[in-house]
Amino acid sequence: MFLILLILNDMIKLVTIVGARPQFIKAAALSRVIRDEFSHAVTEIIVHTGQHYDPSMSDVFFREMQIPEPGYNLGIGSDTHGIQTGKMIEGIEEVILKEKPHGVVVYGDTNSTLAGALAASKLHIPVIHIEAGLRSFNKQMPEEINRITADHVSTLLFSPTTTGLENLKNEGIIHSEEPPYSFDRQGVFHCGDLMYDNTLFFSKMAAESSSILTDLDLKGKPFILATVHRPANTDDSSNLRSILAALNTISIETGFPVILPLHPRTTAIVERLKAENVPELNAPSSQLHLIPAVSFMDMLNLESGARVILTDSGGVQKEAWFMEKPVVVLRNETEWVEIISSGNGSLTGASTEKIIQATLKYLEAPPQHFPPLFGNGQAAREILKVLTTTRWM
Ligand code: UD1
User: CATH 3.40.50.2000 region(s) of the chain?
Assistant: First the structure.
């Protein structure tokens, strides 16, 4: 009871766990609204696990999006899933024991999410899972294991879509009508998508500050944007080669440049394929441009200028929708099923034929209607309202 009153009347102390690029982006939205509107009620300590450590995958996002400096950087880096996650749990547990937060915020579905959710729930600290309820129904993906586990040990779950709410319900996670919420009486909320908050907030800034379209000579010209980083498409180099073959053919058939900013995972495989002299990386008339990973402002500008976006990233699928662009999803299933059922997105897997067909179809007849599936750009505010006005301990 004492703790309930403390939370309702006093500052709420949150520890936020981030580690991978999409989490820096999501955290930026919540941290911004804490700073601008809830600083009287909420303090936040950011813990960076170190999962993404290259400056182009980490520092640039903190700088550009004005994310508060992490209070802790665990510097864990890459390893096998077990070692990476294990080390993170150990580091996060230490921080929680020292900081004694009221709640631990985790985002999405990465190994950093899983580690934060396990460390906190084992210490009986409420877990707040943002981007809850999403499912690909493919447990071969490490992300699917991470998100299912995080959802089941969370006290407060914020889902960006109604499909997410349904998925949770089907797994027995149902909103408990009467607070206080707890591990066994979870609070489930539909709040919209933080990434939409960010796209709205940063798009104008990106148009002014990013010079990527000029630098790549794309301003006012038609081009196609692609990203590939999932293990299923990179670790299996035949899938990567199949995707590269499609991108080559598309660039040759349309004459449009295809811009492919590379995740470090993909860069490593591309280097290997280059050394093997594979034809997909040597088509003479191709306009396939492989460039290093780009910043968020550059990415927003590329997305807003592209005719079609091809991706296996979850975040980029949604940003395509926010920018009203058709998206070719280089996977066999997606968590963002609404994009596919609307017809504005197509699932192609790594099939060269399907990728080419879907891209050409969208170039010929671009979709026109993008209803607001992901909220109204106020997700961070909605989440903070719940955190500051309901009882969750
Ligand atoms: C992680 C998430 C995924 C998310 C993605 C966004 C998991 C299981 N997956 O995948 O959900 O969509 O982030 O990018 O957590 N590497 C570098 N430099 C870096 C970061 C990674 O070189 O800054 C290399 C690593 O050495 C490793 C590979 O990239 O070989 C993959 O890194 P990893 O941490 O496994 O996660 P991601 O594939 O990025």
Answer: 2-192+378-389, 205-364
